[in-house]
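A further point concerns the way the authors explain their paired sequence and structure data. For illustration, here is how one protein appears when written out as sequence plus structure tokens:
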Amino acid sequence: MRKPSLIQLISFFILFSVGAYAAQAYIPELKEQLKETYTALTNSPEPKEKLEALEPIEVETPEIRVVPPIPEGLITKEYDKHLYAAEHNGFGLIESEDHFKKLIEDEKLVLVDKGKGYEIMKLTHSHPYITPYSKVILEELGLAFQALTDDESFFTITSVTRTPEQQKSLRRRNKNATGGTSSRSYGVSFDISYIRLNGKKRFSRPLQKKIETILKEFEKSDKIVFIKERKQSCYHVTVR
């Protein structure tokens, strides 16, 4: 075996010395790093401040509407459905003009004006006031009508709520007006003309069919009852 030369021996000792020096210089730093790591692992972190307990939020849930079924045994004619629905919806019969004004003050009757898909014509024998829920249904009917036609189309409401005094006065002038108690005196009925559309008095069979289709769907959903009054050229609608 060949012996290493002097130069190789000197080079080996130099490298060994440098390595030993580097290790000796690094060991204290390594010890310090290990010490810091151990301290961080063993020392428990400072407890965080406890969050204050939040008070529960009270959410007002809407009242569930219960629609009573219309008993077939009590119905002798189509209009009886409207009277039954009116009697079992809302606040009861409007007894007088003073009672009517009090209902407005108590916000049990609300004003209806032109909305999306409908307008209220100038009324002479009724007041443009209905119950809040009836207004919701009227607005849904208007939106449904525009959905089947276009955003500019609207139908016309020709009659809304009547007080007993108005009903008697109309009865003297119009023999076709209901005698006795009318569903219009409960704040839940209104008439939709099928010959007054988009602000003009004209007959449109396609538009009439669309109104009737919407009313039938709402009736199936137990939202309304309606009847076609040919002499008045309107659909009489009562909200359930």
